Amino acid sequence: MPPDLRPGLAGLPPEAVAAWFAERGHPSFRARQLNDALWAGGATSAASIRTLPTTVRAEIDATFSLDTVADTEIRLGDGNLTEKALHRLADGALIESVLMHYPARRTADGQQRERHTVCISSQAGCAVGCPFCATGELGFGRDLTTAEIVDQVRAAARRLRTHARRLTNVVFMGMGEPLLNLDRVLEAVSALSDPGRFGLGARHITVSTSGVVPGIRRLTALGPQFTLAVSLHAARDPLRDVLVPLNRRWPVAEVVAAARDHARVTGRRISYEVTLIDGVNDTEADGDALAGLLRGDLCHVNLIPMNPVAHTPWTASPMERIERIAARLRRDGLAVTIRRNRGQEVGAACGQLAAERAGEPAAPVVARRRELLVMRSAAALGGERLTEPPEAGLAAALAANRDRTPAVGPVVATVD
Ligand code: SAH
Ligand code: SF4
Questions:
Q1: Predicted pLDDT of residue 410
Q2: How many other CB atoms sit within 10 Å of the CB of residue 74?
Q3: 182-221 pLDDT, tens per residue?
C-alpha cells in the first residue's frame, strides 16, 4: 500500500479547517460539525460522520487523515492496569504510548480519585542517547507531526471511553525529546488544552525534558500552565555527562538555573526525575549532591527505579537505597515521591517495543556498548569528565534547533 500522505486533521488549528471549508464554498457550520465529530465524538474516519453530506465526507477523506495512528497494536500488563500501544505511522516509523490506570485510593489527606494517564511520544527515536533508555539506543528517526502527537492521546481517550472512563492526565514521557520538537509539542498542547478541542486542563499535562536549556527558556517566556519535568539523574557533571549526553552541551547548573527561573516566573513547581541505577547514581554522595543542588527550590523530586532494558550493564537500585536517598532529600525539606515501575512485562520503558521490532544488534556491538558504559561510568564515579564531543546524531539535532528561539510563540491555552 502506498504511504498515506494526507495531513492529520487533529494537528490543524480550527481557523485552518474553517478556511478550508470556506474555500470550497461550504457553509461555516460544516466546519463546526467536523470539529465536534473529531473532538467530542472521537471520529477516526470522515465516512463515519453522519452529520455531513456524503460528498463533503469524500472531500475530507481525500484531503485529511482523521487518525494518524490507525495502525496500533496493544499489549496489556500489570493485571490490565497498563496498556502499551505500538503505533506504526504512515511512513513505517514505530512509536509508543502507554496508558496507565490508577484506581481510586485513600491517602493520608483524604481520597484520591481514579486517574488515567497516557504517556506519549514526541519523536520517533531520540538523538540525546541516554544509555539507560531503550529509545536512546535506537537513535533519532524523525520529529512527529502535531497530529501524530495528538492522535496518540485521542486513541487512548477512545479506549477509555469504551469503559465509560475519561482521560485525566497526559505526560510527554514517551519516545523523544519534546524540547527538540518544541513547535509541534506546543501546537499539540494547545489542541489538547483548548476547551473547543480536546479540552484537558493544561495543569493535567506534563512535558519532560532532558535539559534543553534554550527550550526551557522559551517555555518560560510563554508562561505555560502545564508542568515542566526535568530529567536530572545526577547532580554531578561527570556522571550526568554519561547518563544524559546533552549535559556536555548544557551542564547541570545551567539546567537547574533555567528550571529555577521557570518555577519563579510561572509559579509552578518543577518536577525533577531521577532514574536510579544500582551502584551508579544511588550512593550517599549522590543523595548529598542532589539535596545540595535543589535545597530551597520550588520543586518535587520523583525517584524512579531504572526499568530494565536490553544492552545495558545496569539494573535498578534496590528499594532500600532509593528510600535512603528519599530520606536524605526530605531531611533538606524537599518533596519526594518514589515512583513504582509500571508494566515491566510489557516493556513499559518507552522505546522497548520499538527496539524489539528494530531487531537485535550484532553481539560484538552490544558487548562494546556495555564495555564502554562500564568504563565511562567508572571514570565518572572517579570524578573524571568526558572529553569526547557529543555523538554526531546529537550534534546534528542541536544544530537543527539552534535558530528556533522566537520568544513569542503560540500562547498555550490555560484552562482549569
Ligand atoms: N526525553 C525526555 C522525555 C522522554 S523520557 C526526557 O528524557 O525527559 C521520560 C523519562 O523516562 C525520563 O525521565 C527518562 O529518564 C525516563 N527513562 C528512560 N528510560 C528509563 C528506564 N530504563 N528506566 C526508568 N526511567 C527511564
Ligand atoms: Fe531521549 Fe529522554 Fe530517552 Fe534520554 S531518556 S534518550 S532524552 S527519550
A1: 29
A2: 12
A3: 999 999 999 999 999 999 999 999 999 999 999 999 999 9
Quote the CA–CA distance of 404 and 385 in Å, as a whole number. Answer: 29
**β-pairing, 110-112 with 105-107?**
antiparallel
Cβ atoms of residues 245 and 391 within 8 Å? yes
Taking each helix axis from N to C end, the angle separating 213-222 and 182-193, rounded to the nearest 10 degrees, works out to 30
Left, alpha or beta for 78 (phi > 0: left; psi -120 to 50: alpha)? left
Average pLDDT over residues 39-44: 97
208 CA: nearest ligand 1 atom: 8
Instruction: Give the active site residue among 130, 133, 299, 350.
Output: 350
Per the annotation, the verdict on 133 as an active-site residue is no
Residue 2, Cβ neighbours under 10 Å: how many? 5
**In the predicted structure, residue 336 carries a pLDDT above the cut 80:** yes
SS3 49: coil
Distance CA 211, CA 155 (A): 29
Sign of CA pseudo-dihedral 106, 109, 110, 111: negative
User: Distances in Å between the alpha carbon of 323 and those of 207, 271, 398?
Assistant: 26, 18, 36
Confidence of residue 350 (pLDDT cuts 50, 70, 90): low
Annotated active-site residue 350? The verdict is yes
209 in contact with ligand 1, CB cutoff 6 A: yes
Per the listing, cell 528510600 goes with 323
Interval between CA 206 and ligand 1 midpoint (Å): 13
Q: Which residues line ligand 2 (CB under 6 A)?
A: 126, 128-130, 133, 135-136, 175-177, 210, 231
Q: What is the pLDDT of residue 148?
A: 98
Give residue 409's pLDDT band: very low, low, confident or very high (50, 70, 90): very low
Q: How many other C-beta atoms can be found within 10 angstroms of the C-beta atom of residue 102?
A: 15
Total-model pTM: 0.91
Residue with CA nearest ligand 2 atom 6: 136
- Domains of the chain: residue spans and CATH: 9-63 (1.10.150.530), 69-401 (3.20.20.70)
CA-nearest residue, atom 10 of ligand 1: 173
- What burial letters (b/e) apply to 344-378, b meaning 16+ CB within 10 Å? eebbbbbbbbbbeebeeeeeeeeeebeeebeebbe
